[in-house]
Amino acid sequence: MAKCETAAEIDAVAAGWTARMDRGPLQPDEERDLQAWLAGDQRRLGALARAQAVLVRAGQMPLREVSLPMESAPAPSGTRSRVQRWSAMAAMFVAVAIGTMLVWQADQTSTSRGEVRLVPMPDGSAVVLNTATRISTSFTDAHRRIELLEGEALFNVAKDATRPFIVTAADTQVRALGTSFSVRRMPGGTVKVLVREGVVEITRDQASSSQAPVRAVANVKVIVPPQAPQQVTELPSAEVARDLVWREGVISLDGVSLQQAADEFARYSDLHITFASPAIANRKVTGLFAANDPAGFARAVALSMNLSADVQADRVVLRD
User: Fold this and answer.
1) Is 242 a member of any domain?
2) What pTM was estimated for this model as a whole?
3) Residue 101 contacts residue 75 (beta carbons within 8 Å)
């Protein structure tokens, strides 16, 4: 059985990588080694961010952050997409407020439509923001709080029993110590929580709900409608993975109507999909599609459903 690295061991390796990166661009073989190291443990990315933050505070490294732009035709899985993702992660420098590492206040962080961004936190956690997402962050030596103001985010939480990690969305609070979960603010005030690893506790604002807290474990989805009971659903791990493919710039559709698919694409692109008739809009579709290519999706649907796709300047119209 492989020996589990301690936090101190991870920090030491991260410091070595940071020193090497500070001397100049990595060679191709070094980049591959860094990508492989980052992929081996989710704690390593946060450790690299902390090590880089030390140099930022010392004035030895420029302050930058990285956006992960979507590929025009991203692969849902496989070597190419994984290498691109880890290459971007390995290349980034932490975007942090200059100050102490235990007391950190950040301004709001956001993504534009069609953008996905990885944001390292000062405690070693990392947040991936989906398209058109906005968060507000407060980290102190007593707590770690993030408010999801709009959109969707995946939270990979570093363990710290002394400082609870709490995500607030509308009247819903999600509390975790060390886990991985996503939160999405949906139309109409509904909040969706999807637990990828570990355990979270979901509570409602007592002013708006008297419902008891819900504990959700890995592979559980919790839908929190406004003024209604939470809906808890166990999912196969494969379905959880499909739900999170947006990190790769991919939309996963599973037996949804074309209208629902069009609404999902509208989150990522200004090119809207419309329908010549309600009957077309109600047809069902399943598959993985590039999030920023609604025209390509419409053409694929037209081909498979014997329709025509009329691509215009600001919309695509599907017709019989």
Assistant:
1) no
2) 0.68
3) no
